[in-house]
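Operator note (shift B, R.M.): manual run for GNAT family N-acetyltransferase requested after the automated queue skipped it. Running by hand, logging everything below so the morning shift can see what happened. Input copied straight from the record, untouched. If output looks odd, do not overwrite the archive copy; leave it for review.
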Amino acid sequence: MAKKNPEHTPKLLLRQAVPADVPQLVDLTARVYTPEWGHSAEMLRSQQTHFPEGQFVVEYEGRIVGYCATFRIDEATALAPHTWAQITGGGMGSRHKPDGDWLYGMEVVVHPDFRGMRIGQRLYQARKRLCTDLKLRGIVFGGRIPGLAKNIQRYGSAEAYVQAVIEGKRRDLTLSFQLNNDFEMIGLLRAYVPSDYDSLGYAVHLVWRNPQLHDHPDTPSITSHQNLPDSVRVASVQYQQRRIKSFEEFATQVEYFTDIAADYSADFVTFPELITLQLLSIENEELSPVESIRKLSQYTPQVKALFSNLAVRYNINIIGGSHPTEQPNGDIHNVCYVCLRDGSIHEREKLHPTPSERNVWNVTGGDSAATIQTDCGPIGVMICYDSEFPEVARHLTDQGALILFVPFCTDVREGYLRVRYCSQARAIENQCYVVLSGNVGNLPGVNNFDIQYGQSCILTPSDFPFARDGIAADSTPNIETVLFADLRLESLARARNAGAVQNLKDRRFDLYQTRWQPLPPR
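Run finished. Output pasted below as returned.
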């Protein structure tokens, strides 16, 4: 029986250009630009010689139907005004710099008979992959505006025409495509290609910023002089409150969870707010709520020493929940001691005491919220109720925080959900990670600390690089456990620079701003 002929399947291939492609590329560029303005064989060979990995072709059933050329260039040259001939070395790609930190898009051509197959889009994607693989700052080029000559009388100037395209009031065959591919305008280049009559010689100076880099000027910078890790492992302890007989018993429980987190190679371990109220179960005497808190504050030196020693011994950064601490002026503040594995101790105070803390314990709020520089980048701390005030998280994010830690203590589910929902909002609006750690269990006989409701969790922004529901990990409510999650800092950079929404970029500074008031010492 005769075999059936296999069904014919068209084959489209994107690959790196090679010297054997030069004759076809000469024909392709002549077809697009006319023989006079097409690329010569010398130009094409020169481009491949200077930067072979930056030249791509699209081949359809053995025929080259698309081509793009790139080279590396330094930022000062790339972002300054220039012409095509100047920056490309007359089309030779001879200004390629092997250590250049930007990728320059010298050329993209698509055969007219094959438009509509998204060949240009494939070539743009190849450029972006090359840029991110090489860890360059971005892609820059001069983009044609072929609709300008036909519409110059209507708009009066190139600037007005381009603005109309950017605002979506006008469509330009080339510029609209480039804007839809996440390129942004940084200026207008005059006499870029004088022979481009459709564009009246103009080009739009366009850039695409590598979303995997953190230090772009239009997003909050990360003020760290160290190379940040690709991934940070965080642990959150859902801690059960139980009666104890001594500080040593408390220390044993804290060390147990620190040891577990370290065994799993966590970079951070977080404990809940007011974890040290457990120490009040040691006392047998009847004390008023205010007297109880002042009594508890006497443990401050031991608490700081415990967390600091554990951080160094177990090589882990500890977010030590919070501990009521008497200030030199007699006020009681709710303080989180952050003990880093380099031995340093940082104090972060709760800014917003709850009505219950103020009325029952006479706790007052702190005055500042600063980030803490760690070996995993800047972090911020918001103690429980602080997470319900968006100004705090925004202030920390503007300082460069990538991860916000929220030690919390809530007695009923409604209170817990206020913290949970607000923390999720903080993660979304600031495009950062938020780690919650809470108490569970009961502690009879301790004023204002009778019952606990907690469900610790590790939250993410809501976008494609992250967990489906914006939850990297969460616990079963009201049981003692430890959560772990690996948080990729690269994903934050990608979301902040090129996410489906870009909350940090899109703020209206022309309409509103938040200013933190410096307060005199108390």
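Quick read of the result: The first strand starts at residue 12 and ends at 16. Residues 54 and 130 are 7 Å apart (CA to CA).
Leaving this for review. - R.M.
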